[in-house]
Amino acid sequence: MEFYLSVSELLGMTANPLILIFVPIFLFTALAEALLILHRQGTYPWKNAGVSISMAVGHFITQIATHGVVFGIIAMSVYEIRLTTIPISFRHWPSLIALFLLADLAFYVEHRCSHRIGLLWASHSVHHSSEKMLVTTAFRLSWTPILSGVFLFYLPIVWIGYDPAWVYGMVSASLTYQFFVHTELVPRVGWLEWVINTPSAHRVHHASNAEYLDKNYGGVLLVWDHLFGSYQAERPSIPIRYGLLHPRSAPNNPLVIAYEGLWLMLKAGLGAGSMRERLARLWGPP
To answer: In Å, what is the CA distance from 144 to each residue of 148, 242, 262, 278?
Structure first.
């Protein structure tokens, strides 16, 4: 239980200060965006933003409920059979940079799999359910953390010797950065997209247009998309259409947004004519 206690102590020492710092920043950014949109357009999609915030509350609750399983059992078990112990602190900056690169690559792989595997997409589609691109869209996160399998993609980094608290802390830092790329207010800065994720690149990722579909999976770095052929620039001649190809039946109901994708996948799998078709529903492209 030593590892579990160390994570709990770490969270106890750092979670509250981080929340105190970032939650006000998130709320201030969302309010500033709302005021700017109101000034420019005369209206703001308050209902859409409210639904996104309610999705964040549900995500937070389900994360708390599964924290003990992910950290206390799964991550601890992997860390106990690690290949080595990699020292990491701000003084050990080479290992910190290596962790950043490994975690960002793992995010790319996880994100791409979440778009190409039906079971993972059933959870991840929650994030793509908004038909508006606002910073609050970043709050649309899954309520099925165990089924989504997101945490599994980072376990190899734990296995090679990185403390899980640092691994998942790095992932949280990446997600914090990604909050700020969910906006239409920042124009395209093309040269930056050779290196990092930008609002323009992420707008493309959230598009449901055929020309933009399943592109730009990067978290902080966009280098992986250039390396693995999934980069697509935003094109002025093709206005972006946000949301899902098959929208939720009740797009403003948080419960429907959270669980309908999973229900439809299970329903289609149970109605399939053969085991091969059922497996295809789970593991094939959505």
So the answer is: 6, 23, 9, 21
Give CA–CA dist 108/113, Å, rounded: 8
Phi, psi dihedral angles at 211 (to 5 degrees):
-70, -25
Q: How far apart are CA 171 and CA 167, in angstroms?
A: 6
Q: How far apart are CA 127 and CA 137, in angstroms?
A: 7
Question: How is the chain split into domains, by residue range?
Answer: 2-190+244-283
Query: Per this entry, what is the length of the chain?
Result: 286
Q: Which residue has the higher pLDDT, 54 or 64?
A: 54
| pLDDT confidence of residue 247 | 92
Run of H or E including 76: helix 76-80
Q: For 109-120, what is the mean pLDDT?
A: 95
Examine the pLDDT at 54 and tell me if it is beyond 50: yes
pLDDT band at 141 (very low <50, low <70, confident <90, very high): very high
Specify the 3-state DSSP secondary structure of 242.
strand
Token couple for 29: 């950014």
Bigger pLDDT: 178 or 148? 178
DSSP letters of 171-221? Answer: HHHHHHHHHTT--SSSPP-GGGGGTB--HHHHHHHTB-STTTTT----SSB
Instruction: State the number of CA atoms in the 13 A half-sphere of 32 facing the CB.
Output: 9
The span from the CA of 243 to the CA of 133, in Å, is 9
Contact 7, 168 (CB under 8 A): no
Within 8 A by CB and 6+ apart from 1, the residues are none
Number of CB atoms found within 10 A of residue 260's CB: 21
Residue with tokens 């598009």: 207
Residues 140, 146, 150, 154, CA torsion sign: positive
The tokens describing 106, both together, are 């793992």
